[in-house]
Amino acid sequence: xxxxxxxxxxxxxxxxxxxxxxxxxxxxxxxxxxxxxxxxxxxxxxxxxxxxxxxxxxxxxxxxxxxxxxxxxxxxxxxxxxxxxxxxxxxxxxxxxxxxxxxxxxxxxxxxxxxxxxxxxxxxxxxxxxxxxxxxxxxxxxxxxxxxxxxxxxxxxxxxxxxxxxxxxxxxxxxxxxxxxxxxxxxxxxxxxxxxxxxxxxxxxxxxxxxxxxxxxxxxxxxxxxxxxxxxxxxxxxxxxxxxxxxxxxxxxxxxxxxxxxxxxxxxxxxxxxxxxxxxxxxxxxxxxxxxxxxxxxxxxxxxxxxxxxxxxxxxxxxxxxxxxxxxxxxxxxxxxxxxxxxxxxxxxxxxxxxxxxxxxxxxxxxxxxxxxxxxxxxxxxxxxxxxxxxxxxxxxxxxxxxxxxxxxxxxxxxxxxxxxxxxxxxxxxxxxx
Length: 434
Hints:
Number of domains: 4
Low-confidence stretches: none
Strand content: 15-25%
Shape: globular
Mean pLDDT: 91
Number of strands: 19
Radius of gyration: 22 Å
CATH topology of the largest domain: Rossmann fold
Helix content: 25-40%
CATH class of the largest domain: Alpha Beta
CATH architecture of the largest domain: 3-Layer(aba) Sandwich
CATH superfamily of the largest domain: Methylthiotransferase, N-terminal domain
């Protein structure tokens, strides 16, 4: 076998894309080694996300910046993967001659064969939703040591068809991986040094690869020796079943942090979004979860300026935020996604939407700061992930997903230790070992 080629992957968007990029690198591992410099690579992959505004245009802009690189080194191959690839595969091939291959998120197990075709001078396009399970065709994960936290995809696709969202069109229908395979992959990660696993899915709590649903999978993972922490994201309020809610009170390894998007506090807007729940039902779910785990930190998503949103609708969103008191949150101004139902509706004035977003974000920032500041004086358990910026400093995450830094020169990466919080600074906490 000749010298290995070099592979550069640029990842956009969600945690699932981070996981997918890892698996793509592993799929090509027999012929390629990773590099962190596009200039050195023989194969460049852009793993794209279609959620944010003008996602496709940003990909074309990035491809334009890579054209001089390819002009200087004609042997370099460039590929586009992920959700923009799925949505616009043929158009990318037509519009960007610099691109050699395009593959959607359900077909990247075919990358080695596609790369071989490209090496022969062909252009390769695969944006099908294959019948075979891509995970069954991916190679076993390598045994090299890795960071103490890892993502693990357990569910893909979504059947909810929210009016603003492209996921059902780019990731396909909901599909769950079998629990035995998920647990086997988790064991392999733990053997490589992973202490915390975040289970991923576009609608992860709709997971049905275990007879007990996501709760059953979590309890199965909790039996793995050496695995200290379990998290999951992203969830839909309608799929928070009794067993999953109960798991937050009975499974010690399930962390007290829940990302549960609601998008709006207005029932009228929620109906227009096709969310299939009301604000009252969402709040009832939060109440039930807090009943079994009172200290849980709630995170969420909001879209401001959805078509037809009135001042009264926005006021309802602000009222819901006040009622929940979010520890973390992500908020965005609505932007159209071609092909989704909401794209065809009359749009809210952009300046008004921007003003509402600023108002909402100010409230969310106050809530997040207050919850973080309230951690001072408390003891938490920190999973140390990497050295900090100062000599002898180590950084990690608390069970509530707050970033924590501690002077602990003798603490090893991957250690979980008790820490007393002594200060709160912007976006992080300072502590001392107990």
